[in-house]
Design brief:
The chain is built from seven helices and six strands, in the order E-H-H-E-H-E-H-E-H-H-E-E-H. The protein starts with 9 loop residues before the first strand and ends in a 21-residue tail after the last helix. The protein has one domain (about 10-135, about 180-225): Decaprenyl diphosphate synthase-like (Undecaprenyl pyrophosphate synthetase). The protein has about 250 residues and is of the alpha/beta class. It is globular and about 55 Å long. Helix 2 (about 30-50) packs parallel to helix 3 and helix 3 (about 70-90) runs parallel beside helix 4 (about 110-120). It has helices at about 20-25, 30-50, 70-90, 110-120, 135-155, 165-170, 215-230; strands at about 10-15, 55-60, 95-100, 125-135, 180-185, 205. The chain is about 40% helix and about 15% strand. The structure holds farnesyl diphosphate. Farnesyl diphosphate (FPP) binds near residues 16, 20 and 82.
Length: about 250
């Protein structure tokens, strides 16, 4: 137990293990996703209570389009249902809703619900909840490179002006700080094309608990682990100051 808990400004989560949760119970995979949506509600509520400023959840990757059509359709329906049910709560709790990823690939119904939720929560400032939908880190970086190339081609930007800041400003996450902490549930230890640029100096905590079973206790234990980490960002940690009276009395 740490004596104080350091709260990350930006927490990102790879919500993994819904399918295995369902298979273990001889249920269809979509039942795991449904249960996973309940975890999303719990974790969003807890993060809001803890004062986490930015929460980003990996809900659907560019690779997930390759899953069986029934599962993809089920996930899209779940997303629409989730937004319909949660948007009033988000607005009431000051949660600003945001999406990153190739939104144009999402079905029309999902895009409409996203737009409605973004509009409903536009004046909320307590927390930013970002869903990564149809999101892939490589895809995001490729789109940013294309956008910069167009700016150069059309004379809005000089090649010498391309630096980390201009590059970051072309990413979907332009308005978000980099994550301080990444949590991945479900036992795998990889980042699976999530926030490739932004995770450069993030701390990572891997939990064996599958996402539907991930609750308040598991979140607090990940935050405790984060509190114990010493972040150096590639620098040298300053020596603890020597007492002026060392060796004195
Ligand atoms: C990974 O588990 C999870 C997903 C691909 C989808 C995440 C979706 C949810 C948490 C529920 C819906 C979310 C919202 C916001 C409504 P997996 O299916 O890859 O699990 P497995 O590795 O055990 O097969």
């Amino acid at each position: 137990m740490v004596s104080f808990m350091e709260i990350p400004r930006h927490l990102a989560i790879i919500m993994d293990g819904n399918g295995r949760w369902a298979e273990k119970r001889m249920l269809p995979r979509i039942a795991g996703h449904r249960e996973g949506a309940k975890s999303v509600r719990r974790v969003v509520e807890e993060c809001r209570r803890l004062g986490i400023g930015f929460l980003t959840l990996f809900a659907f990757s560019t690779e997930n389009w390759g899953r069986p059509q029934g599962e993809v359709d089920g996930l899209m329906r779940l997303l629409v249902q989730f937004l319909r049910e949660e948007a009033p709560q988000m607005a009431a709790k000051g949660i600003h809703f945001h999406v990153i990823g190739a939104k144009e690939r999402l079905p029309e119904g999902a895009r409409q619900e996203i737009a409605a939720t973004v509009a409903k929560t536009a004046n909320c400032h307590e927390m930013v909840l970002t869903l990564a939908l149809s999101y892939g880190g490589r895809d995001e970086i490729t789109r940013a490179a294309r956008c910069l190339a167009m700016d150069v081609k059309e004379g809005r930007l000089g090649v010498q002006d391309i630096d980390e800041d201009t590059f970051s400003s072309c990413l979907d996450t332009a308005d978000l700080p980099d994550p301080d902490l990444l949590i991945r549930t479900g036992g795998e230890k990889r980042i699976s094309n999530f926030l490739l640029w932004q995770l450069a100096y993030s701390e990572m905590v891997f939990s064996d608990v599958t996402w539907p079973d991930f609750g308040k206790q598991e979140l607090l234990s990940a935050l405790e682990e984060f509190s114990r980490r010493k972040r150096r960002f590639g620098l040298v940690r300053p020596e603890p100051e020597k007492s002026l009276f060392a060796g004195g009395r």
